[in-house]
Amino acid sequence: MTTIRDVAKLAGVSTTTVSHVLNKTRFVSAEGKAKVEAAVIELNYVPNTIARSLKGGSSRVLGMLITDANNPFYADLIQWVDQVAYRLGYNLILCNTQGDIERAKDYMVMLNQRRVDGMLMMSSDARQLPLSSYATMPMVMMDSGPEQAGYDRILDDSELGGYLATKHLLESGHMSIGMLAGPLDKSNSQNRIAGYRRAMAEANAEVDERWIQSGEFTYEGGAEAMSRLLDQPCQVTAIFASNDLMVMGAIRVAGKQGLIIPQDLSIIGYDDIPGAKYFNPPLTTISQPLEQLAEQAIAMLLARIKAPERESQRTLLPPRLVIRDSVAVRKPVEEFNRHKT
Predict the structure, then answer these.
(1) Ordered DSSP codes for 12-24
(2) pLDDT in tens, 187-215
(3) Are 286 and 271 in contact (CB under 8 A)?
(4) Which of 77, 87, 95, 238 is most exposed, with minimal Cβ within 10 Å?
(5) d(Cα 31, Cα 23) in Å, to the nearest integer?
(6) Cα separation of 205 and 240, whole Å?
(7) pTM of the predicted model as reported, rounded to 2 decimal places
């Protein structure tokens, strides 16, 4: 079996230099790096990361637990996380739980056995995992992970996002605004509802509780919630949906009922998935800063790996409004401002 000593001998450098090149832990001259890489290829050398971690070193591997990699929002985020990890010299093991708690538990056992250096958790399943069993595993909770001492959290400011979305509809002249909320047991759903309520209260706009219908963060969830909302006797002129996938289901239901977006019904989403600008009409939505989320999540995780006993950190990233064509202006903004005062 080829060893790191064989690589060093062929390259004419020390084993320490080979280690720094492979782990990207210290600057090595371009000439030295080229020699090491050529030797690695010639000898077909594969570092035994698990054996190295057993000796107390770093495996240079991070795990990421995610609920649904097929969701365009998560797929886009994974790309950013993988890009940042690779740039910093880490490999990423992605585990897609598909909402199955037993599958999530199995993945956690596997990642622990693989001795990954740390974990990124962007999965609602995290709240059901026996995290105390992995107390020594550095973790960063992304999105709606559990509040627990010893784990860092980074997420978008969903309350602010809900507020910005609803305020935009109000400023566009809509006072009867419905909401397609996500699952009510998820904190980001509750926070977006809170933002919706805050904006409505500031504008002295009435909230009919029948206007708030919840569903899963899926096409089907949006369609089902939209059907219930349109069945209500008091009709809305605009809708804030808690994610862009729900918007797709909602638009389909609206079309079946002969409603045209935005002439008959305005709609705004959340996430700004890659396809949002290709909706018909292009979707006004709330954008989460995915590149910043990936950068800061990994930075927090590496800081936790370096200092396991440090105090827990919590970071909120501000979302932003992206205006496109799915919201119609019903009256001048000046009239809205007069109503609000």
Answers:
(1) TS-HHHHHHHHHT
(2) 899 999 999 999 999 999 999 999 999 99
(3) yes
(4) 87
(5) 17
(6) 15
(7) 0.80
